[in-house]
Fold these 2 entries.
Entry 1:
Amino acid sequence: MSTASTSTAPRRMRAKVRYNVPATIILLVCAITVAIPLFVTINMSLKTTAQAVDGRAFTLPAPLSGDAFAEAWSLTDLPRALSVSIFITAIAVVGEIVISSLAAYAIVRNWHRRLFRWSFFYLLAAMFIPFPVVALPQVQMTGMLGLDNPVGVAALHIVFALAFNTMLFTAFLRSIPISLEESMRIDGASTWQVFWRLIFPLLGPMSATVGIFAFLQSWNDFMMPSLIISDPRLQTVPVLQSMFQDQFSNNYNVSFASYLMAMAPAIVAYLLAQKWVISGLTQGAVK
Amino acid sequence: MSETTSTPPRASTPQRSSAPPPKESPNSPKIDPIYYFFLFPALLAFTLAITVPAIVGFGYSFTNSIGFGDWEFTGIRNYIAVFRDEGIVGAYLFTLGFALVTVIITNAIAFFLALGLTARIRFQRTLRTVFVLPMVISGIIIAYVFKFLFSNTVPAIAQTLGIDALSQSILANENLAWIALVIVHAWSTIPPALLIYIAGLVTVPEEVYEAASIDGASPASKLWHITLPLVSGYVVINTILGFKGYLNAYDIVVGLTDGGPGVATRTVAMSIIRGFEGGDFGYQMANAAVFFVISIIIAIFQLRLTRGKASFGS
């Protein structure tokens, strides 16, 4: 499991590699604090209603039951919320990758032109504008424009991520040597072709990072959909959890089954795309 | 699709020899118009979704608008009222204090976890995966999970152990509920800070530590005199990003305490939105404008305070 023995130690010293045992033990203990809420969520969701009602978090399910999942699924009409969440998330992921990478490419290749340079700083300003500050007029305007629905939320997700994404893409684009595309242009390729055939594929790793962050942010967001989407039947999965708080009441097994189903897609996506999550965060911070 | 124009490399200047030497040559050589088409969607979306609402909202902050229908211009009356509104001032004080405590605790824990995770430990990959995991879980949902733990599990354990202070839910105690908010925010936001610290710590070369060991430096003094100064840039980043995030705290607060008990844990973001839901638009826009200015001042203050002192390793 650990890579330390193969990667950090020179071959002749391999026998001498010593692990820092106290640090390992401390970290394992700390890891329990991460695990407890997740363990309790899974544990409670597998109980029967009769057992869960006592609210004891650490008694193991007896008997093991999947009923809570079925009940949560139909009580909250989860399939509908899932399709809304998937819809918003899909638009946000594709939109963020395409719009930010196009803008970043235009900016980097025309950095000597004032319009493009200033556009970059204009877009970056979004990093300093918290959503609560512009939320109220946005609620009003999306209502007037008929965008008080999942489409409006997806559009807002794209816009609020523009600053960070454009920054990531421009940093990456600056490292791509211009000679690559010059040879393609000499062969008669247009800018459009250069971008889609050469640059966009080269941006792949960065697009993966932007995409996974777009997915996580869009999937997990509560504030924006709860304010913007006016029709409760078009609400997203996280908002659904708050809408059903009263109805869950003391049926802890049902509520936790519902929470677990809401968390699961993000956890699975993270485990599959861990590398891109980690590289994106560290690169974004240092730039 | 478009004519083939070769864009010059960024640094080249030979084409400009005949023109007067301006600092910039916006129109020469010819630009492929498709670049405007590339940039346009981002600018348009940003302007429509952020700039215009910000300006419109700022305008409304000088009116008595309730969000629809007629309104009258009321000058700076909203702003005066905001500063006299105990509820709003209370929310600002609470949010600032909460953000300060949370940013310190989160950074301290994240830094020590990063030290551990960059040491020669077993299960390094697995442990990193585990510690980053909380980042991908929706704030409001994890707040509901913790709400259950704070209101059922913790009191039950405290009763069994005979700890009176914790035998009732801290969420119901207006002097202690903020602690629950700090814990859940820390749980949820340590991962990004942790990853940034890991990125910083791996840039510190091993030789520096070896040299210090030869000079007889203790682990604590190595940490204080070598590691911390070398990664101070990452501390700055985490402090600024963290503080910004906690100032805007909303999702977890709504899920965990809903601003309560009473209004004991109401954040600024909540006061803006709850006020708006209660029918104040112009007034809450004044609140939002004040909030924006305060956020900017804090960001500038943090940058000034740390300017020139930040180091990003070697």
Note: Chain B touches chain A through 102 residues (CB under 8 Å).
Entry 2:
Amino acid sequence: MKCPQCYQENFPGEDYCVNCGFALMDADLNKPKKGFGALILSDTVEKLAPPEPLIVKPDSTVKEAVELMIKHGHGSVLVVENEELIGIFTERDLLKRVVNVRLDVSVAKISEVMTGEPQSLSDSDSIAYALNRMAVHSIRHVPIMSNNKVSGFISVRGMLKYISEHTLERT
Amino acid sequence: MTVDDTITNSLNSSTLKQLNLEPPIEIPSGTPVFEAVDKMSDNGFGCILVTDGGKLVGIFTERDVLLKISISDVNESQSVDEFMTKEPDTLKVTNTLSDAVREMSSRGYRHLPIMDEENSKCVGIITAKQIIKFVVEFIPEQVYNLPPSLDQSMLTPEGG
């Protein structure tokens, strides 16, 4: 099993992590065995079917980014430079930093109005992490990384759908 | 069959009246659209309700700003009525949280105005974030106490 502290892969049945000594039997015991609480630990964010992200370069204009968002009906674009995720631009940023101050969208660069260093998750992280980002940190869009490259993003909408599918009876 | 009877039952039995709904932010019909934008931006709110003589006639959201205003030629004198979604879907305070989850997830709404029992006045707004927080309250241990994400952890163990 994977050590929850350092992520070392241990042989099944090990009592202590061979790397950091963390007590694995406790980690195992504390985990709920059933219910939604167990599901969000065993399901990875992949279960939210992260859509392919919209990607722009830092020197793209705000207009180019917004056109992409409108075309695909997404509430965010990711800003990537040399394959590295450096920012996110959302509807909220658009409202506050662009429309509210009447910024010229065909001149302003996305790097001037994006939110830098967005909190991302790995594609092998559990749904619990996504819930944590949304409920605790109030983040609506979370980029998903796979092998250190942006592979998708998850949104509050996707999460609501997941909650609905697993907690409500079908009518 | 659902995976969790406790959460399911609670969603089915809790009415919207029992929630701390966000109070609605309202503007009168005919308000200049940029006034609506300013108000939404200042309040940190994703939507604003448009009323006419106390009656709900429309909803104006961040999505409307994206789609209809951000890169369009909008005149300062144009009113919010031209950009809002008219006669929005609503629920009543007597509806359950399940109703809200269904309505929002099937239609992709992030905000839903909630009307009083007589369906005459909007008393609050339920947001997708609130629903997520409601569900998380049942499973705090799994959500609040997490080790760092795999994405933020080092690729090799420390000292390894």
Note: Chain B touches chain A through 51 residues (CB under 8 Å).
